[in-house]
Write the structure tokens for this entry.
Amino acid sequence: MYTEEWEAEWERVLWQRKPYPDNYVPRSFLSSLSRNPNFRPYTYWQLVILSCPISQHLASIFVFLAVFMRLQQRLLDPRALVWMSAAVFLAGYMTWELLDCSRVDTGVRYTNRAKTLKASILVFLALMSLSPVLKTLTAATSSDSIWALSACLFILNALLADYTALRPQSHRRERLTSVLSMNAAISSSVVLASRLSDDISVFGLILFSVQAFALFPMLRRRIQDTVRTIQVILTVVLCGLSTTLTYPLSATATYLYLSCFIFVTFIAPGMLVWAQRFKNEIRGTWDPAVPKVNRRASVSR
């Protein structure tokens, strides 16, 4: 049999007896070669918008550190911090209700309100009762070890945080990395609070940390599913707040935060756009088929 006849008869099967050898490769084998078939190029400003959640999270970390330093240096009244935390909690909860008023059933909203009220009271009472214990938690540990441990935990918190959008009525479970991220931030807050002088300062700082690292990330992810303008405004407000609170305490920390902000928000997206030109993924008939599973259909079943 001639090569042309083999070309017309060739099939990629090994369970049939064919007149050509098993290692035969026809000339049309590379005709279906494709390069970067599923590649969707990003634009610069699209990546800048997608980096806003990371910038917001970094800003919340520096805001918390600035609040801690002011409490430690007695530049901030802890009672005022408690009242501000309560006001911020009410504002955040009202924002959550406004975002869900048109997408969630009324019965579900009433149930969520009761659960939120119960959980808030329990957390408030638990922190009040544990504040004297937390104040003496690291009494036998040097301050240098506390600063190093806190820095490592906050870096772990930023690396493991979940920066994806949270859609309403989403039944998706929290990722393990996001849970570890929250635990790292709360643990860092606890070890920092143990260096404060009185119980009310410890209580105020831990209450503020729960809002900054447990409740605010949920609201931030929920805002990601709304208009991009709100997300940009929130990023600018948090950046300005962190800079305003940090600069009177330490110019070095302020420059460090601004460097991280500029790199994450503006430089890293440009680097990714520049690196897209080097993407070279080749697909051909030799690659195994990739099944496409409809996740929505599987969840509804």
Summary: The beta strands are 34-35, 282-283. Residues 296-301 have pLDDT under 50 and may be disordered.
